[in-house]
Amino acid sequence: MTRLFPCLLLLCAVAAPLAAPAQTQTQAPRLDKLKVDVKRIEVDGQRMYEVDASGSVLAPPASVWKTLTTYERMSEFVPDLSSCRVLSRNGNEVIIEQQGMARFLFMNHPIHLVVRAIETPPTAIDIDLISGDMRHYESRWNLFPVPETGGTRIVFSSRLMPGFYVPGMLGTTMIRGDIERMMAAVLARIDSQHANKAG
């Protein structure tokens, strides 16, 4: 199985929340399914990948915020992320070091990143690359309350350019798969923690 960017889930520019579908009185509120879109774009003459992903959970924004900003525990549930530690914190600025593994066909490529997270509680986290195995990385998390469920719509977006070769359209497919696994893991973790508290 190919896994290119397991640790990039932490790292995202975002879309506005989608309007919730109308509900009848007999229908339970519908959670949006996980959606992931990846495309190749050109910015200032450089080709990179643009990621937009979203999904919903029953947990309120405060609980989602806590999960996303407890950086040291990310390696417990994000696929192929071996470590994540806070190097420094100054107000709403957090410097984070991440170690992981990119799996491409029959090769394993270690990934090391140092990123800056700017927190805007309790709705947004902006992340940009300081150093590491990426030529370009910027990302953003946005949290939107879902009044119908009391839950949260989570939107993640990113622009990235690996520091190593990734093959064209095949790379798009592989990155989409990685982001889907990463987002699914985060949503599952949040749902699990919410269920434990509710129970």
At a glance:
This protein is of the alpha+beta class. 20% of the residues lie in helices and 46% in strands. An eight-stranded antiparallel β-sheet has the order 1-2-8-7-6-5-4-3, with helices on one face.
What labels describe this entry?
single chain; alpha+beta; 8-stranded antiparallel sheet; 8 strands
In words, what does this structure look like?
With 199 residues, the chain is of the alpha+beta class. It is built from two helices and eight strands, in the order E-E-H-E-E-E-E-E-E-H. The protein has helices at 61-69, 168-198, and strands at 35-43, 46-57, 81-90, 93-104, 107-120, 124-132, 134-146, 151-162.
The average pLDDT value, as a whole number, equals 84
What are the low-pLDDT stretches, counting only 5+ consecutive residues below 50? 4-30
Strand content: over 45%
Helical percentage: 10-25%
How many helix segments? 2
- The number of distinct β-strands equals 8
- Sequence of strands across the biggest β-sheet: 1-2-8-7-6-5-4-3
From the N-terminal CA to the C-terminal CA, the straight-line distance is 36 Å
Order of helices and strands: EEHEEEEEEH
The backbone outline, from C-alpha atoms, is globular
